[in-house]
Amino acid sequence: MKKELEDIFAAIKNGNTQYNIHDLISESALGYIDDDWEDEFESEDEAYEETGRGEAEADVLQNLVFDHGGQNLEINDHCTLIDALKEHYDIITD
């Protein structure tokens, strides 16, 4: 990984625990479920797990990268960094 990516990765990693990241994803997921989720699901988390397509995860990771100076990364570098963050924080979006 390039030094710039390593620096951004380290800054994100140093400021965020796995629990913190998953809490951010849970909060973000609320914006991606239907208002009538209670008709079909027992919890908001279950609704997002069944209907979400990784939007909340992508949203959180994008914001972290941008907040730590990664807004001008080349697309390949951006993807490399996002993949490294997914692996580090055990985030599954597929």
Summary keywords:
94 residues, mainly alpha, 5 helices, 64% helix, 0% strand, elongated
Radius of gyration over C-alpha positions, nearest whole angstrom: 15 Å
Count of strand segments? 0
First and last CA, distance: 23 Å
Query: Which percent range describes the beta-strand content?
Result: under 5%
The major sheet is characterized as: none
Characterize the overall form. elongated
Helix content: 55-70%
Helix-strand category: mainly alpha
**DSSP helical segment count:** 5
How many independent structural domains?
1
Please write the string of helix (H) and strand (E) elements: HHHHH
Q: Report the uncertain regions.
A: none
Residue-averaged pLDDT: 94
What report would you give on this structure?
Helix 1 runs parallel beside helix 5 (75-88) and helix 2 (18-29) packs across helix 4. The protein has helices spanning 3-15, 18-29, 44-51, 55-67, 75-88. It has 94 residues and is mainly alpha-helical. It contains 5 helices and no strands. 64% of the residues lie in helices and 0% in strands. The protein has one domain.
